[in-house]
Design goal:
By secondary structure, the protein is α+β, with helices and mostly antiparallel strands. The chain is built from 2 helices and 3 strands, in the order αβαββ.
Length: about 80
């Protein structure tokens, strides 16, 4: 994403009530497919990016051996 701030602002704008954002990313380790490890984001990196935009993580899950998923809500709407 070229402009993370704009993306996060738009996500915050369009999410209504109990809306959620799900991020699916390659694990930050070598896998049989995907971009170089240096181009991947770890879970802590994604938490930091979304936290700075007033989102909180409300769930996480493994998605095969290559991916992970993180679910975020706007701060205050994580019930």
């Amino acid at each position: 994403v070229d402009n993370r701030d704009a993306l996060l602002a738009e996500l915050g704008r369009i999410l209504c009530g109990q809306g959620r954002v799900c991020v699916i990313e390659f694990r930050k380790e070598q896998t049989p497919m995907g971009p170089p490890v240096s181009c991947r984001l770890g879970e802590d990196d994604v938490d930091e990016i979304f936290g700075a935009a007033a989102f909180v993580r409300v769930d996480s899950f493994a998605l095969s051996g290559n991916f992970y998923g993180l679910v975020y809500a706007r701060q205050g709407n994580n019930a």
